[in-house]
Amino acid sequence: MTFSAKHLVYGAALIGFALLPQLITVKYYLHLSVLALVWVIAAQGQNLIQGYTGYVSIVQAGFMGIGAYSTTLLGLHYNLPVWLTILLAPVVSALFALCTGYPSLRVKGHYFAIVTLAFNLVIFIVLMNYSELTGGEAGITGIPKPGSKGGWLNFANREVYYYFVLIIAVLMTSLAGLIVRSRIGQALLAIRQNETLVGAIGIAAWKYKLFAFVAAAMYAGLAGALYAHYQSFINPDVFGLAQSLDAILAVIIGGSGTILGPVIGAFVVVFLPEYLRFADSFRLILYGLVLVLATIFMPRGIAGVTSDLWTRLTRRAA
Amino acid sequence: MIEILQQIVNGLAIGGVYVLIALGLTTVFGILGIAHFAHGSVSMFGGYLTFFLVASLGFPLLLAILVALLIGLVLGVLIEWLAYRPVRNASHINAFIVALGLTMMVEGLNLEFFGHEQVVIPTNLSRIFDIGGVTIPELRLYVIMAAALLIVAMTLFVEKTKTGQAIRAVAENRDAAILMGVNVKTIPMIVFSISTALGVCAGVMVGSLFAIAPGIGQWLVVKGFAVLILGGLGSIPGAIVGGLVLGVTEALAAGFISSAYKDVIAFVVMIAVLLLRPQGLMGKS
Amino acid sequence: MKLGVSFVTAAMMLAGSAAFAAEKTLDIGVSDALTGGAAVYGLPQANAVKMAADEINAKGGIKVGEDSYKLNVIAYDDQANPTEATNAVRKLIDRDGVKFILGFCCSGATGAVASFIANEDAVMLVGNAAERSITTREIPNLVRTRPPADYTGAAAGTFVAQKGHKKVAVLGALDVGFYASYVDAFEKELNKAGGEIITRESFGLKDRDMTPQLTKIRELNPDAILVVGYVEPAAFIYRQATELGIDVPRYGFTSGSEEQFLRVATSEQMEGVWDLRPTELTLLSASENGKAYHANYTAKYGIAPSPSSPYAYDQTYALKHALEAAGTVEDTAAVAAALRELPVPEEVVMQYLPVGGKMFDVNGQAYTSNGAFQWQGGNWVFVQDLPSDAEAYSKFLSTID
């Protein structure tokens, strides 16, 4: 893809997202779009560690949970304004990521994947059992919306919340783009390709890996906070292993190691099960089959395939 | 003292199941470098099938297990052939995603064929032994003994037979194995057959001593991977030691520390081992 | 047609037959766990709603004013997951134009929907979900057929205390809120009589080996044990307790059917176990309605109904009578108000204790009687009513915010 064509795609996508609420007639799809945008943020974070650094982390939903419970509990117990707790949520999840990332990044490949998976399970069990704080399985209800009552923006309106999340998703996607193009991003890519070599030329790979892991957690924490204030209800079921796998899928299906990939992937992950509902009880089988086939025949994801096609088309045209 | 002994005996049964699951995972990992996430669901398929043959078609238990083993084998080999082989040379992330997709498919099949109610394979073994104050039901004892037998058989197979040595050679150094004339094309099939066979046995044990229900397979495979971390990825002795350690740790944690957090404690032990010995208890550094 | 009411004129379909009143279709929604671990509770509930709807349709439908409506059930799977449940209900309301939503077997998913339903033009009828907080906020357009767990727990505590037990060991799915609240209420009543809970052991949803917890309990020498949790793991506790030689009285709160227990344990291992729970469906205690329900359900679906599935069946009849009383299928506020004024309909299966003559109290909560059931010779036998006071509990529920 040429430089200008790329910008054209970004511009078109932005306009498309901005117009989406006006095009949607059935509000249900607006609701799903808000959820998909929340997942865009989480998937952008996952992409930093999985797509760019090459470390599969299976704890993204767990960090979303930490973000969601942080913003909720800080608001509940310290009476802080919602916008502040939303900003604090990624900080809290970053702290957790620092503590867990430091030991777990000492191991590579599958070891790392399984250790992070264990972290997700631990987070889930603690959220379930520490019910004095978290309300356990029954969860916490009545989480307030951002903005004051009678303010000029009504965040209880789904359209308003859509634009709110859209702006944050665009910001976070741009930030991910900046990180990737910076020196740090180059180092991450180098680690993905050959970590030993990176170490050999005197770069402290662990610092960069830890950075990617913590950044991923901050994205997740923010996404979790936005989720909590949108749904006004959280319980541990939303932050389990299955949701962490969804984050991985979003990156893979969309196209790992690309900036548009997680955006596409997040929408696929939220909307695909919806369109597979016709299959009724065969939904799970079909969903699995789509995954297997997509990974075998489309290993670089939707973004990868489109970009390949584009290159072929433009080459032929030239 | 009796309480501690009783708790260790309690942990042995589930520990034995963990070992069998982990053995299947670790051999596949050693040879193919794949985290075979669908292993738990395939194992449960074997358990479900045994239940179906016994409860609905009236097969004798041993015959049912044999049939389930054979059909399980076919499923395992098909999975290797159709799903894992195409991503052999892709990054391990892709293989992992394929494994996830397979897990959903097999879970979906189980749900479609066998329903959502939990099933228990009927055995009619209800005697209870009392050995110096430690009680152990007959069925539980047989499960532990069967697990021990399978573990010994597996160890002998890998250590003593030609095929077993070839498998170990490929696991240790693929290129050298090719040079030594090992047929690396058939090895994955053999490994998947063995792995699935052990898994089906584990499924039958879970299904008779405990129960099979939706989600149990995934829960077991997570435990299996924890065992692999404990013992060392790809290590067969590691899977044996790790599985027993995990099972007994869980029982002791539930009995003496906190039953609500027993899984957390087990995972903390796993992470601690990883920090002290990143290659696992039995892995080579 | 996104109006929810699709007009199928009978005259067009049954040409020639003199049908003067228009026959219309009313869509009602079900959000419940149709797959996954909780499907054991959710699927029978969805089936029960469909069965009730078929019965109502066969008897001429719902008569609202001049019109009669045939019910059409749209059921979506929420997998007992809060996000999925929100999605399912959003879709029912936004896309399918449904105004009446039933089902709801599980507390987490139900709590998520309850958190926003007050702002919607819809009525929500909750079934098996037992978490107390669902009806403490007096949501005007929400009612629930199953009583909260602590209402039953208190009655159970009194019963066990009357049996003279002092040291009770608890083994339960205590990470699940309503099971914990059952135990809390149980403990309060037990303490009043001078008894105490000597340990609270926990197990997870997927656990089937509870011998470690039971071994610990065995060492503590309790007078009795109390088992609270879903039937699948609970059945293993009863079996493993006998295997470990624990021979103190076993009490429980599990609501499993005979079939579900016998799959795991022998009848001898179950002998003497008490189940202290709402008087849900059991073969031996069932009323005439209950027997008919059991027979019809078994004939229709080829499997016995779960004991808690009538909560959803009863929702459907409560909705029918409320719609007829309100005289509208459009004005959800009127229907919600009519629900709270409703006497207990005669078709219901559970044995409701009306509060002030009404099925649902001001909180939208219905109460059944609680019963002590005992396993005797292969069956759950109803032994006696548990001392439960619906009026008093209703007042207490109103004081919680």
Automatic annotation (TrEMBL), chain A:
Its main location: membrane. GO terms for cellular component: plasma membrane. It comes from Zhengella mangrovi. One of its GO terms (molecular function) is branched-chain amino acid transmembrane transporter activity. This is Branched-chain amino acid ABC transporter permease. It is a multi-pass membrane protein. It holds the Pfam family BPD_transp_2. The chain crosses the membrane at residues 30-49, 56-76, 82-99, 111-130, 160-180, 210-228, 248-272, 284-303. It is found in: Cell membrane. It comes from the Bacteria. Keywords: Cell membrane, Membrane, Transmembrane, Transmembrane helix.
From TrEMBL, chain B:
Keywords: Amino-acid transport, Cell membrane, Membrane, Transmembrane, Transmembrane helix, Transport. One of its GO terms (cellular component) is plasma membrane. It is a multi-pass membrane protein. One of its GO terms (molecular function) is transmembrane transporter activity. Its main location: membrane. Signal peptide: none annotated. The keyword Lipid metabolism does not apply. It holds the Pfam family BPD_transp_2. The chain crosses the membrane at residues 12-38, 50-83, 95-115, 139-158, 189-213, 225-248, 260-277. It is found in: Cell membrane. InterPro entries: ABC_transp_permease (IPR001851), BCAA_transport_permease (IPR052157). One of its GO terms (biological process) is amino acid transport. Belongs to the binding-protein-dependent transport system permease family. LivHM subfamily. This is Branched-chain amino acid ABC transporter permease. It comes from Zhengella mangrovi.
Automatic annotation (TrEMBL), chain C:
Residues 1-21 form the signal peptide. Keywords: Amino-acid transport, Signal, Transport. It comes from the Bacteria. InterPro entries: BCAA_transport, Leu-bd, Peripla_BP_I. CDD domains: PBP1_ABC_ligand_binding-like. PANTHER family: LEUCINE-SPECIFIC-BINDING PROTEIN, PERIPLASMIC BINDING PROTEIN OF ABC TRANSPORTER FOR NATURAL AMINO ACIDS. This is ABC transporter substrate-binding protein. It comes from Zhengella mangrovi.
